[in-house]
Amino acid sequence: MRIEVAGENALIIYVGEHGEAGVANRVEQITRLLRQQLGADLIDLVPSYASVLVVFDMFRCDHLKVRNAIRDVEPLLTDDASAEGRIVTLPVYYGPEVGVDLEDLARNADLTTDEVIDIHRNGEYRVYAIGFAPGFAYLGDVDPRIAAPRLSTPRQKVPRGAVAIADRQTAIYPAVSPGGWNLIGRCPTRMFNPDQEPTMPVQVGDIVKFDAISRDEFLALGGSLDD
Questions:
Q1: pLDDT of 44-73, one tens digit each?
Q2: Poorest-confidence range of 5-19, 58-72, 103-117, 175-189?
Q3: Strand order from edge to edge, sheet including 51-56
Q4: Given Cys at both, which of 17, 79, 187, 192 links 174, Cβ 3.0 to 4.6 Å?
Q5: Residue 64 falls inside a structural domain
Q6: Structure pTM?
Q7: Residue at which a domain ends, from 55, 83, 111
Q8: What is the extent of the structural domain holding 18?
Q9: Are residues 131 and 166 in the same domain?
Q10: Beta pairing class for 87-93 and 155-158
């Protein structure tokens, strides 16, 4: 691990290179262990693909204390698969009225739309990072057969719950926002709700699976077909 100063009350831990075996697992462990170790001294922990940003309360501790805490947790890291995050299953309606890019993606991949859906829903996706908006979880890795580049012209408005693919990542839009990912379905589960605890159904290190549901099931679970 490499530790660098990221501000007057922040350090960043570089765990390795994105794509290296075990890096995401170690990011999840470091985040969990530092939360236990530092407790009220923390303002925020921001895990990413291969790093963790540690923001601390400078009135309670300093860089040295946090750096020592990081060094204390390093020997506790393990490659044991049992240290990995939870498995979270999220429902997805893959209907053509919400999967507006599904047909084009299938045509470009020389697959049928049903084949694209089957490949996507049968995958297992690790939560690598959360951002650019609260609840926007970057999930990977998408099967290369259905990987697709971002749209050349982003949409000004992508609906909440839209399930999308960009390159070898997939994600669920937590709120209405602009976006250039390929839309293949919609999820009724709220990916960010500030009135609930926890505010998000997934966290970095979790494994996400998708469960294909019907239009009626989607609506019964609170999904919306409004654009």
A1: 988 888 899 999 999 999 999 999 999 999
A2: 5-19
A3: 2-7, 10-14, 51-56, 42-47
A4: 192
A5: yes
A6: 0.80
A7: 83
A8: 2-83
A9: yes
A10: unpaired
